[in-house]
Each structure stands twice: as structure tokens, then as C-alpha cells.
Write a structure and sequence with these properties.
two-stranded antiparallel sheet, alpha+beta, four-stranded mixed sheet, single chain, about 140 residues
């Protein structure tokens, strides 16, 4: 019961932050969320805010972000960009917002700062990908 209550608080806080940062909640993924944004800096700031909210609940979460073309499937999304974002997220540590180089390059001039996390092979994705952790 406590786990279910925690998930409800998490989902509510996530939905609130996504709306505040002008994103669109696509779906809940069980203990996470999938959202889209029209600007990558807002996506990074939203992920940081969600992680902050979750931390206040006494839990640690992590996030992965990538920017790219997606396929619209009714209210859902699909495509390689979604797959890459999921793989980036799988490399993130507790409390970390991990982003692809694509995101880092797109937010140049936004004031966001990043730490290089090196090159990674992402399962099911060609090539190596340079990943960065957004600084709080």
C-alpha cells in the first residue's frame, strides 16, 4: 500500500512539473514517466525539478533525455529517439539527469551546465554516444 501511495505522489508531482515546464505527459511507465517538450532546456529543468521533488519524498530517481524525431501513435510516441532516451536513462545514476550530446548542444547559451560522462554503447543503437550529466 505504501509503495502505491508513493507512486501516486510521484506521478502527481511529475505531471505537475511537466505541465509547469510546458511539456506533455505521454504516459506513466509504472514507476516513471515519458514526456515530450518543444524545447530541450525546459525538458532538462523539468527532469531536475522532478528529481528534486522525488528526493524530498525520501527516494532517489534518475532521468534520461534525448532530442530527435518521434512517430506519433495516437496519444503515444515511438521511434529511435524514444529508444535512445530510454537507453540514456538506463545509464543514469541515482539523482542524475543524464542527457545525450544532442541535448547538450541544443541548450548552448541556456545557462545549463553539464559534466562529461564519456562515450557509451547504447544497447540496440549504432555507434557510441557521448553522455553528460546536468548539474543541479
Amino acid at each position: 500500500r505504501r509503495w502505491r501511495e508513493l507512486l501516486e505522489v510521484h506521478n502527481s508531482a511529475s505531471a505537475r512539473q511537466i505541465e509547469h515546464h510546458r511539456g506533455r505527459l505521454v504516459k506513466s511507465t509504472g514507476d516513471g514517466v515519458l514526456a515530450v517538450f518543444d524545447a530541450p532546456a525546459r525538458a532538462v529543468r523539468c527532469a531536475q525539478a522532478i528529481l528534486g521533488d522525488v528526493h524530498q519524498l525520501g527516494c532517489e530517481a534518475y532521468a534520461g533525455l534525448h532530442a530527435g524525431e518521434v512517430e506519433l501513435l495516437g496519444d503515444d510516441i515511438a521511434g529511435i529517439a524514444v529508444h535512445i532516451a530510454a537507453r540514456v536513462m538506463s545509464r543514469a545514476g541515482p539523482g542524475e539527469v543524464l542527457v545525450s550530446r544532442t541535448i547538450k548542444d541544443l541548450v548552448a547559451g541556456s545557462g545549463l551546465q553539464f559534466d562529461d560522462r564519456g562515450l557509451h554503447t547504447l544497447r540496440g543503437v549504432p555507434d557510441e554516444w557521448q553522455l553528460f550529466a546536468a548539474r543541479a
